[in-house]
Amino acid sequence: MKAYRYWLDMEAPDWAKLNIPEIDYQDSYYYSAPKSAENRPETIDDVDPALIETYNKLGIPLHEQEMLAGVKQRTVAVDVVFDSVSVATTFRDKLAEAGVIFMPISEAVEKHPELVKKYLGSVVPHTDNYFAALNSAVFTDGSFVYVPKDVTCPMELSTYFRINAENTGQFERTLIVVEDRGYVSYLEGCTAPQRDENQLHAAVVELVAMEDSEIKYSTVQNWFPGDKDGKGGIYNFVTKRAKCQGARSKVSWTQVETGSAITWKYPSCVLLGEESQGEFYSVAITNNLQQADTGTKMIHVGKNSRSRIIAKGISAGRSDQTYRGLVKSTRTAKGARNFTQCDSLLIGDRCGAHTVPYIEAGNASSMFEHEATTSKVSDDQLFYCRQRGMDEEEALALIVNGFVKDVLQELPMEFAVEAQKLVAISLEGSVG
Amino acid sequence: MVAEAETIEKVSALAEKYKYGFVTDIETESAPKGRSGCSNGA
Lengths: 432, 42
What we know:
The complex is a heterodimer. Chain A is built from 10 helices and 22 strands.
């Protein structure tokens, strides 16, 4: 209620280079859940078959036996969030053997209240921004991960978000805490039905990395982007932030953004620990009338903290895309280092690409480097490839894959292949 | 110029290719629409 009252007095941010139609916050459901999920299923076998079938269609296997038997190539523990609730989490027992907690955040509130109370809101408080306040007021579920000291999480963790119900927003919360010398790799994916009306997704993700720990957080964002005339699609207004609290802690954000009608998203790192590291690897693709204002913030506080930003933007159709990034060092961040590379690729002549870097060095020993390029897929490049027997779409895929390979190679291997296909599909038909 | 015209056509066709756009027909319960729904504890 505190967050809700705070949100009522706030105004939506208008500084991004986005044309956001006025949102009627009274005309949306803030909570929808399958009736079958009312009593939380104990095992996957208890989950509604219609939900299992949905995830099969999406290519997300939920049956542990199949995965362990090698029917699927990889072993990934999955938490599935359907509208406003988590409906299933796989491999919990196996993870628990290693001491790793992976469960819906609604359940963590009941079973591990001390951890949730200590860390929830510690990285993104409800006062942080308009959409974080809204999320804090209305979120009902999401994922919780806790990796204890000296534990390397034995498998990839993943959460798959699906909006299904009409006129419903999704406001999930993710909290990941990794103790000293722990490691986890976590991936999130998301999709939604093709509808004529816009739907809001306003999530908050908080990561806490302690001494010598590492969190690798990857996103393959594939929300419905709207139709060719810009009708429908998800408004993806997300706050993601990591606190590298311990010395030598490391957080790596990797994102492949291909969906959403409008994206407003800046995964960030607050580098508090000495020699802590933050990384941001991003591929953002916009097509048709999609808009994206995305980037990162690297806030250096600890001595000798380091960060690296590789952002690749691809604009096609009549879409508009902005990279917006802040690199900042405080007085205490002696010897801070950052390298930023920001490249934009334009396909066609009706799209836009913009770069807005903010650099604030708070001490004389910080060293920040920024490189930026804007290029166009030219007829010459396509002609060169076609001379060698490729058709136009193969040629474009080759050029684009070369452009984004630095980022895709940061994804866990199994997902990199999927992401590569997604990139090709997103740009299918972008050349004549 | 020809290439450009074809680009426009193909890009227009692209939006139809979102293969995850199906709806799951499942019984759902929702809190009342709007902010009053949230303030009632949804």
